[in-house]
Structure formats: structure tokens, C-alpha cells
Design brief:
Strand content: 5-15%
Number of helices: 21
Radius of gyration: 29 Å
Helix content: 40-55%
Strand order of the largest sheet: 3-2-1-4-5-6-7
Shape: globular
Length: 542
């Protein structure tokens, strides 16, 4: 019936549609008219973070764009093992070693528990040091020097909005549209920059251990954290980032605020299974897990170990940044003893060392490397012991695996509490972890079916979409290309100063007018009172 309607609109006789080749040609013509094509674009992508969890979603998007015929130049710490067509990679993998050395010099650690306040304080200086490392590297310096004469043109820039100093590339490449990709929960300053609503009464800070149901004390603390973050960003980070940016790109480089206003679109690798509902501007798109792929067969040694587990398998990994070997002997002994209490349940423990763990029982397998996404899909996985970084959280939700969260730093507190608030996991505090607490948590996750049921509900939410996350992200990037920056998506609020956006100037004028009016009324009343008093006290003439 649909093809008959199409033939009528195109004035094609029905007999012609009987011809298979003509039918195929008709479909192609109609498809090309409905789905606008984008000419192969030149795209520059700077993904400098030396963290596999950050690189995964970024590279998934850049590779998907390359497969669509776009030509990408990508600075990455995790280059592909084999060359990819249209995907030129500039290898800065040495950032891993250099950043670890710099962390030790400045006292910035990813191997210890950090509160939200400590994380904000350390990150503000850490971002500045990291920007110096990135922009001062030989690879980036060579790229800047080769483009100082504006001899390279890019149609679009992919940008990770954690390091404002790298926005200097926008000016260097003659201000092409910018698509920001954020591989973590929504950042308060990013929301402010984009004109999104900011309300600490029900929006927990992205690095706080809060959910969206806040009592008075929590709202007070959340508000202070918001203000502290914005204070650091406006009065410390941005100023220092501007100095670093101008140092490497030249004094003629526009301000960070001006360059940020050039951002056409932001893709959040989040959705309502991993975060809380809140209003977003039209140029802010929550797409979900960009890095998820079809599950691949797991290595035979892992498969055999898991298949033979009598009562299932626990996966234990603290992620790509926090090393299992950083866990103190005291805490390590708690894990070892607790696992020994469940001999029929097998455990796969990501352990980045050849050193044997004392007292480890036969039901525990240690491994330096873990095909995490594929292993979580195994039907015998009972739950996932995780630091709950965003990518690990998304993989657990995708495979409907409950989580025992052990957050360490950054957005891990936020992610873990989200799962706990949904009844899909349990959170334990790393610093106060005891044998009894860990044993009770493991027992609950093994015996109570509600955690699995709730995780299955989150999994359905995460997959119930018109298209998968990567396809959605690619469509929006090409939308920006088709519409030459898609300026129509950007609200006028991003051009306003912060005091204008929140009507503080209007409020100030209103208060001045009220105060002036009250002053005039007060003066008038005093004057009248004085006149009346003077008149009443005036001697009467006989």
C-alpha cells in the first residue's frame, strides 16, 4: 500500500513498479529525498584525557563518523592497533606516563578516596597542569605551528569540555562549529555555559553522593558546592586557562567565554537510566552510552571459569584509573576473607600485578585485563563490584547486572547513589568498609531478587529509544554540519552575562527604585510632619 501511494505521488503507473530494478531505483530516489546527505566533512577531534573510560565513547563517535565517509584528524591517547580509513590518529599515548609523574609532583591522586569538596579543590589545579602538558607536547605544538598561517580548514571540531584551554583550536582553525562530547554526568559549569537551568534544590552536583530527593541540610550543602564550583571556575580556572591558552595560541586568541559561545551542540553520554530528569536547552542532547557494542565471545579461559560456577560469578573491578593494587592490605584482606565465605560463588578480580594476593581461595580468579563489557553479558554473572564510573555503570545497566558500588572519586558517588536510589544496587563506603558490611552487602545482592528486577527496569529504559546512542550522536553531528553550525538551536541566554541571565541587574534596579521611592516617601512624610508640627506650634494671634 505504501508503494502504491508513492507511485501515485510520483505519477508512476503501477505496472512500472512490478519491475524489480525500477522498484529499487524508486526506493533509492525517495530515500535520498527524505534523508538529506552530508558531504564528506573534515573534522578535528582532540581527545587528550589519558583515561580509557574517557577515550571509549569519544573514539566510538569519531570512528562512526569516519565510517560515514568523513575525514577525521584525532589526537588520542589510545590509537587503534590498525589504521582506520578516514581516521588519521595522532598518538599521544605518552600522556599516561607523563600525567602520572605530574600527579605525584602536585599531589593529585586517583588512587585514594576523595570527597566532593576535595575533588573540586584538586581538580581546579589539576586541569591547569594537564593543559600545560597537552598544549606543550611536541605533537600539539607541531600541529599549532603548521596551522599558524591558517592553511588548514576544518568543517567541525569535536571537543571534550573539561579543558577550556583547548578551545584555542577553534580560533586557530577559523571558528568552525564545535560539538562538545561529555563522557560524565552533566557538569554545573557546562550547564551554566549552555543556558540550562541550574537549581541545587533538586539537581545534585555531578560529584556528590546525593540523589534528587534532598532534605534541607542536603540542599544547603548542595548549594554551597554549586557556588564553590562556580567560584573556582569563574575566578580561578577560567583565568588560568585563558593565560595558558594565550601562551600557546597567541595573545590575539579570543577569551574562553567568547570561544565557548561558539559551541553548537553538546552530546551527553547519559540518559534517564543513569541520571535524573531536568530541563535542557535544544542544543543539549542526552544520547546515552556511546561506547556500547554488540557483545563479542569472551576468551575461553574466562568462559570456562564462569560456565563451571555452581552459584554464579561476581565481577570485581575498580576501573581503569583506580588500580586494584592501590587498595591497602587491610582492605584487601577484607575482600579476601569475604570471598572465602562464599565458596560456591566464583569471583573474577581485576588485579594489575603478578604479585599473589595472600590467603586467596580457589573460588577467586585474578587477572590484569578484563573484557568487562562482554563478561557482564554472561548469564551466570550475579552482580558487579565496581567503583561505578559512568561507562561501567552503563555496561551494568545494559546487561541488567546489579551493582555493589565502591565509589572513590569524581562522578562515581553520583552514579552509585543513582543506582541505589533506583533499588538496583548497594553503596558501601570504602574508608569505613568492614568485613560485616561487605558480607551483608554481598549476601543481600545474592539473595534478594529486587536488585535484579530493578536493574532490568533500568535496562529497558536505557534501550527503549528511537535509535541507539551512537546513531543518534552521528545524526546530530551531521545535523550541525548540514545547518552550518545550527545557530537556530542556541538560546539567546548564552550571550548574556551571568547577572543578566538571572535578572540580577533588573533586581538591582528594582531595589534601587523601591529604595528611592521609600526614601522620597519618607522625606515627604517627614517634611509634612515638620510643617504640621511647625504650624501647630505657631503662637496664635489674639
Amino acid at each position: 500500500m505504501r508503494f502504491l501511494l508513492i507511485s501515485a505521488r510520483l505519477h508512476l503507473p503501477y505496472e512500472m513498479l512490478a519491475d524489480t530494478s525500477l522498484l529499487l531505483w524508486t526506493i533509492i530516489v525517495i530515500g535520498s529525498s527524505i534523508c538529506p546527505r552530508v558531504e564528506n566533512a573534515r573534522i578535528f577531534a582532540l581527545f587528550p584525557t589519558p583515561s580509557y573510560s574517557h577515550q571509549q565513547p569519544m573514539l566510538a563517535l569519531s570512528k562512526a563518523l569516519a565510517s560515514r565517509g568523513h575525514n577525521l584528524t584525532v589526537i588520542t591517547t589510545n590509537p587503534n592497533e590498525y589504521p582506520i580509513e578516514n581516521h588519521q590518529e595522532i598518538d599521544v599515548g605518552h600522556f599516561y606516563g607523563q600525567w602520572k609523574m605530574r600527579q605525584k609532583e602536585i599531589g593529585f591522586s586517583l588512587q585514594a578516596r576523595r570527597s566532593a569538596y576535595e575533588w573540586l579543590s584538586q581538580c581546579s589545579s589539576g586541569v591547569n597542569h594537564f593543559c600545560e602538558l597537552v598544549l606543550g607536547s611536541n605533537e600539539v605544538q607541531q600541529l599549532i605551528r603548521s596551522n599558524n598561517n591558517n592553511n588548514s580548514e576544518y568543517d567541525l571540531i569535536l571537543y571534550e569540555p573539561l579543558y577550556p584551554c583547548t578551545l584555542g583550536f577553534v580560533h586557530l582553525f577559523n571558528n568552525p562549529p564545535v560539538v562538545a562530547v561529555l563522557s560524565m554526568p552533566s557538569h554545573v559549569y557546562t550547564d551554566f555555559m549552555l543556558g540550562n537551568t541550574i537549581n541545587p534544590s533538586y539537581m545534585p552536583l555531578h560529584i556528590s553522593p546525593l540523589n534528587d530527593n534532598l532534605n534541607l541540610v542536603q540542599r544547603l550543602w548542595n548549594t554551597y558546592l554549586y557556588l564553590y564550583l562556580l567560584y573556582l571556575q569563574f575566578f580561578y580556572i577560567n583565568d588560568n586557562q585563558s593565560l595558558i591558552m594565550k601562551k600557546y595560541f597567541g595573545e590575539q586568541t579570543p577569551s574562553i567565554e567568547a570561544l565557548q559561545s561558539n559551541i553548537s551542540l553538546v552530546l551527553y553520554s547519559n540518559d534517564l537510566s543513569t541520571t535524573y530528569p531536568k530541563p535542557l536547552q535544544p542544543h543539549v542532547i542526552p544520547v546515552g552510552a556511546l561506547h556500547l557494542t554488540d557483545n563479542k565471545p569472551i576468551p575461553e579461559d574466562f568462559k570456562k571459569w564462569m560456565d563451571e560456577a555452581e552459584e554464579g560469578v561476581i565481577i570485581f573491578s575498580l576501573g581503569s584509573n583506580m588500580q586494584g593494587t592501590s587498595v591497602s592490605e587491610e582492605k584487601r584482606a577484607i575482600f579476601v576473607q569475604t570471598f572465602s565465605m562464599y565458596p560456591q560463588v566464583r569471583v573474577i578480580w581485576k588485579w594489575e600485578s603478578d604479585q599473589k594476593i595472600p590467603g586467596l581461595t580457589n573460588n577467586v580468579l585474578t587477572t590484569k585485563w578484563l573484557p568487562q563489557q562482554d563478561i557482564l553479558a554472561h548469564p551466570k554473572v550475579r552482580f558487579f563490584m565496581s567503583q561505578v564510573g559512568l561507562q561501567s555503570m552503563q555496561e551494568a545497566i545494559h546487561n541488567a547486572v546489579p551493582v555493589l558500588g565502591i565509589p572513590i572519586f569524581g562522578d562515581q558517588d553520583f552514579n552509585a547513589r543513582k543506582l541505589a536510589s533506583e533499588g538496583a544496587g548497594i553503596v558501601v563506603e570504602f574508608e569505613s568498609l568492614t568485613l560485616d558490611i561487605l558480607n551483608q552487602s554481598i549476601h543481600d545482592l545474592l539473595t534478594q531478587t529486587s536488585y535484579k528486577d530493578n536493574m532490568q527496569r533500568l535496562s529497558r529504559i536505557s534501550t527503549d529509544k528511537q535509535s541507539d546512542a551512537l546513531s543518534t550522536a552521528v545524526w546530530w553531528v551531521e545535523y550541525v554540519l548540514r545547518h552550518k553550525g545550527a545557530h537556530h538551536l542556541r538560546p539567546a541566554v548564552i550571550k548574556l552575562k551571568w547577572y543578566q541571565a538571572y535578572l540580577l541587574d533588573v533586581l538591582a534596579i528594582t531595589l534601587i527604585l523601591i529604595a528611592s521611592g521609600l526614601t522620597v516617601i519618607n522625606w515627604t512624610l517627614k517634611r509634612l510632619f515638620s510643617m504640621l508640627t511647625s504650624y501647630s506650634n505657631k503662637p496664635k494671634q489674639d
